[in-house]
Amino acid sequence: MRFEFGKNWKNFLSNLDNSKIVQAEKSILDTLKLTNLNGYNFLDIGCGSGLFSLAAKNLGAKVTSFDFDSDAVDCAKLLKEKYFKNDLDWKITQGSVLDKNFLSHLGNHNIIYSWGVLHHTGNMWEAINNVKSISTKNSLLYISIYNHQNYFSKFWTIIKKIYNKFYFLRPFLIITFSLYLLMPTLLKNIILRKKLYRGMSLYTDLKDWLGGYPFETATPNQIQDVFKDDFELINIKTVGNKLGCNEFVFKKNN
Fold first, then answer.
1. What is the pTM of this model?
2. Residues 108-129: pLDDT tens digits?
3. Distance between CA atoms of 38 and 59, rounded to whole angstroms?
């Protein structure tokens, strides 16, 4: 049982505008603590809509994008066709982060980016270890992982299974949980006149959250423990006890 991530991203692209692209660029630079990506090779693991591959390309990087979902691969190709047609420094392919042989042929990258992806593979810890294995000295690894919430994580696992198994219940789940998941953020953004973080869409994010299965979680300490021997923690953004993704930037030491 797997959520159709790529189809959700295709719907998102139909409303993509320049302001969302600019927000995506800003989120990358702010979290990596860089001013541009000139001279960097950027690997986008689980490229989804392709938005952040596009953002990295706009910021000066050479980009390699891949996703397990063929519809997501198509999304990235659509953006490349529109913004960087015939550009040899943006490569897009289909593959899995769980496939070590596939990863071994991607080459070296000094920025490895995987936002909200590894916990949807069905084997999060193997995926994380595979990402570690392709990191080279001084490379930056930017990942985000769903925050563990004890009993709430078990609750959301059940909701996600229901969403994927029973199509006729999807409208009911979307309406029910939009009040809880969307309204606070929407009202806050209206009052403060803020753009949505990372240039995303509230409705796209809602469907991604409700349907996003496979689904695994981790605490910030669990993630940091995995990287403590060979990596330096450069930046961390946590959501506290709330649902959402904790973000980490690690630097490979050796």
1. 0.92
2. 999 999 999 999 999 999 999 9
3. 7
